[in-house]
Write a structure and sequence with these properties.
The complex is a heterodimer of chains A (641) and B (127).
Chain A: H1 5-71, H2 75-80, H3 84-98, E1 102-107, E2 112-115, H4 131-139, E3 143-149, H5 151-157, H6 159-165, E4 167-168, E5 180-181, E6 184-195, E7 198-208, H7 214-223, E8 228-229, E9 232-233, E10 235-241, E11 244-248, H8 265-273, E12 281-284, E13 287-297, E14 303-312, H9 313-364, H10 379-440, H11 447-474, E15 482-484, H12 486-504, E16 507-511, E17 519-521, H13 523-540, E18 546-555, E19 563-571, H14 578-581, H15 601-611, E20 615-621, E21 625-633
Helix pairs in contact in A: 1-3, 1-7, 1-9, 5-6, 10-11, 11-15, 12-13, 13-15
Chain B: E1 2-6, H1 10-22, E2 26-30, H2 33-42, E3 49-54, H3 62-72, E4 78-82, H4 87-95, E5 100-103, H5 108-116, H6 119-124
Parallel strand pairs in B: 1-2, 1-3, 3-4, 4-5
Helix pairs in contact in B: 2-3
The chains are: A alpha+beta (641), B alpha/beta (127).
Chain lengths: 641, 127
């Protein structure tokens, strides 16, 4: 069964399914991995740009709000007049609208005038230490950017801010050992207040980034459009102070914002120490992410923190993973399909094959009517057709050879009988002939007696002919073959029978073929065949008919194609009844009137032709005529004895 | 002229005698090979005569007779007759020195034309 067509077919289909599956699996997953993860990295890089833009916009917005306030009606006047209540009103208004955590006004030499918060009234002279304020004074122009505010500065602005900025650090991985980050990072701006051309003070304000959710969540919600994967936001954003997460929506395993945790040392080195952008996968808090980091610099260009956006890597790596599963399922499905398809196909192919095998078995068991089933289309149908033809040919040949065996058995027994009878009859017949003829010699015979004697003589002549026919039939003479010009034999035969034909009024014409090869044959025997055929033709014709004889070079119609010649004897006579055609060569078969033929002539002729290795066959149409064809090989190879 | 006819069938012997005597031949009949040899031996030599021999006979056949006769009297003309003439018989007869071959049955005229075609007969028979 392992080598059956069925298994081979199934194995091939399976191999195809497996190969196609494996190749598409490999290439598909590879392509997906490259493209999806690559695309994700690109996307995160772009997202970082967006986030960075949003971060900077935030600073600009603050500066704009300060600018607008500083140019507001009565503001410069209130500063000049140190009108605290009015200034505080402006500050509160501004802080509320611009979402500022701290805001204040200094004099032109950085002394605090007033600020929002619990320490709004500055009683002790106090110098503002915020870098931006000094820069605004120096440049006489608005500035904005990221600033670091120490705990003291925060305390001065608002103790609540200091509390908010205080970020305890987990003991583990705390190189400074302080146990907490107390500084605050803020996005702030400072605007010089002009009275005419003179700067009379600075308006400043800003937003503390520590624990601020607005920026990071805005980034997440805008850039990643609140996309979630497995109940977690796909995208995350973080603002680092140095390497410490101070504002983030990256969650700890417990589900809290991972504030106070640190960036990996690798990232810190690349981004903070070397100032490069980082866009690679990185382990963020508790999960692999596709990340992008860029440094945050203060207005002097010092790297003070980092901005980060990232996307859960799992979402992207799961795509190829899911695809892989899908591909495997499809391949498995394909294999199942291949097996079942192979089975169906094998059955469709093998069904007729099995039937044909069975039919062959039937033939070898002797049946010549095997059942081969319905004829298929295509090559298999051709095979079935050929098989059918083969069986039919076998059947024909078997019938033929059975016929031949019967024929030759018949001939042999008739031959023995004829020989015995002929020998025994010929002796008394000699007596009858002698005495009749001797009597007829007498001159004194009565006329009636003479007539009677002549009748006896004629009848005896008939007997003699019959016995001669029998003997000719029985005679198993050896051939005496010699190379012969067949046309000469036939010319001789025609000359012999010309008178007979003339009397009947039948035209006998011989059309000799040209350039015929010499044929090795027994002249006497072949001549007797020709005489027999021409006499038969003459017997079948009446006055006005014709007998024509042709010779031509010809190749044997059946069996091996051998060189030979073909003699055709065609008459326009009565023709042979179809029922009689098959019996024509049987011994003793005759259609002639009693006494006219022995029924041995054609049988004897056939024997002679066959002994020459040739064939004799007949075509006839009733009332149209008959054609006998004698084919003789150029060199005969013995033939039957 | 004498003609010895050898055949185991009496009707053939009688037929031949009837035909040949009518033509003035002296006909001696033998029914077997031995009989034929006796007949030949009793004839005074060198009387010219003709042998007409049948092929198929019991005990010894015509061919054997021919061999013996040809050995003793090669000059004797022999005509062979047979009721079952085959190519082989005719050839054997010819090779053993038969002057002619005739198939049975025959009419008187057929036999006579054969007999008279033998040169010795032409020479010696004065009818």
């Amino acid at each position: 069964m392992l080598f059956s067509i069925r298994s081979k077919l199934i194995a091939s289909l399976l191999a195809v399914a497996l190969t196609v599956g494996a190749v598409s699996l490999y290439t598909g997953v590879r392509l997906l991995k490259e493209h999806v993860v690559g695309e994700a990295a690109n996307r995160v890089r772009l997202d970082l740009n967006a986030a960075s833009e949003m971060y900077r916009t935030r600073g600009k917005t603050t500066r704009m709000a300060l600018n607008i306030t500083s140019l507001g009606s009565g503001f410069v006047q209130a500063v000049a007049n140190r009108n605290h209540p009015e200034l505080l009103y402006h500050l509160r208004h501004m802080a509320q609208h611009a979402e500022l955590d701290f805001a204040g006004i200094t004099t032109d030499n950085s002394l605090m005038l007033c600020r929002i918060g619990p320490h709004e009234a500055v009683r002790v002279p106090e110098t503002n230490e915020i870098l931006l304020v000094r820069l605004a004074l120096e440049r006489k122009a608005p500035v904005d950017g990221t600033v670091i505010l120490s705990r003291e500065m925060l305390m001065r602005e608002n103790p609540e801010l200091a509390a908010k900025a205080h970020i305890p650090l987990p003991a583990k991985g705390d190189p400074s050992g302080t146990g907490a980050e107390t500084s605050g990072m803020a996005l702030a701006a400072a605007v010089p207040i002009f009275d005419g051309n003179a700067v009379i003070g600075v308006l400043y304000g800003g937003k503390l980034l520590n624990r601020s959710e607005t920026i990071v969540d805005t980034v997440r919600d805008t850039v990643f459009q609140k996309e979630t994967y497995k109940n977690r936001s796909v995208g995350t954003a973080t603002i680092f102070l140095n390497d410490i997460r101070i504002a983030t929506n990256v969650l700890t395993p417990e589900g809290r914002r991972a504030i106070g945790t640190r960036a990996s040392a690798e990232v810190k080195t690349a981004v903070l120490d070397q100032g490069r952008n980082w866009t690679e996968r990185a382990y963020v808090v508790d999960d692999w992410c596709i990340t992008a980091y860029e440094p945050i610099e203060d207005i002097n260009g010092h790297r003070i923190g980092m901005l980060y956006v990232g996307a859960q890597e799992k979402k992207y790596t799961d795509i190829p993973k899911n695809a892989l599963t899908l591909f495997i399922l499809i391949t498995a499905g394909g294999m199942v399909l291949a097996v079942s398809f192979g089975f169906v196909l094998a059955n469709r192919i093998m069904g007729p094959v099995q039937r044909l095998i069975e039919a062959s078995r039937q033939v070898s068991d002797g049946s010549l009517q095997p059942e081969i089933g319905p004829i298929q289309r295509g090559e298999f149908g051709v095979l079935q057709g050929t098989f059918k033809e083969m069986v039919a040919a076998m059947e024909r040949r078997q019938a033929d050879s059975e016929d031949k065996i019967i024929q030759s058995a018949k001939q042999a027994s008739v031959g023995r009988l004829a020989a015995g009878v002929a020998h025994e009859i010929n002796n008394p017949l000699t007596g009858v002939l002698t005495y009749t003829h001797m009597l007829l010699r007498r001159k004194d015979l009565d006329a009636e007696v003479r007539t009677d004697l002549e009748t006896i003589a004629a009848a005896t002549e008939r007997v003699r002919k019959i016995v001669k026919g029998l003997l000719d039939f029985a005679r198993q003479t050896q051939l005496d073959p010699e190379p012969t010009d067949i046309n000469r034999i036939i010319s001789g035969t025609v000359a012999l029978l010309e008178n007979q034909a003339l009397v009947k009024g039948v035209a006998v014409k011989f059309i000799p073929g040209e350039n015929l090869p010499l044929v090795t044959l027994d002249r006497n025997q072949i001549q007797s065949v020709m005489i027999n055929l021409v006499i038969n033709a003459l017997d079948a014709t009446t006055a006005g008919d014709s007998v024509r004889i042709f010779t031509a070079a010809g190749v044997s119609g059946t069996g091996a194609a051998r060189k030979g010649i073909e003699i055709t004897v065609a008459d326009t006579g009565a023709g042979v009844h179809p029922d009689h055609l098959g019996k024509l060569f049987d011994p003793f078969f005759t259609t002639k009137a009693v006494g006219q033929g022995t029924g041995l002539g054609l049988s004897v002729s056939q024997g002679i032709v066959q002994r020459h290795g040739g064939q004799i066959r007949v075509q006839s149409e009733l009332n149209k005529g008959t054609r006998f064809f004698v084919w003789l090989p150029v060199t005969h190879t013995g033939g039957q004895p | 002229m004498k003609i010895v006819v050898v055949d185991d069938e009496e009707i053939v012997l009688r037929s031949c005698r009837k035909i040949l005597e009518a033509e003035g031949f002296e006909v001696l009949m033998a029914t077997s090979v031995d009989d034929a040899l006796d007949t030949i031996d009793t004839q005074n030599e060198p009387t010219p005569f003709l042998l007409l021999i049948d092929v198929k006979m019991p005990v010894r056949d015509g061919m054997q007779l021919m061999r013996i006769v040809k050995a003793r009297r090669p000059d004797l003309p022999i005509i062979v007759m047979s009721g079952y003439p085959t190519q082989e018989t005719i050839q054997t007869a010819g090779s053993l020195g038969a002057a002619h071959f005739i198939a049975k049955p025959f009419t008187p005229d057929e036999l006579l034309s054969i007999v008279f075609s033998v040169p010795e007969v032409k020479k010696n028979h004065n009818h």
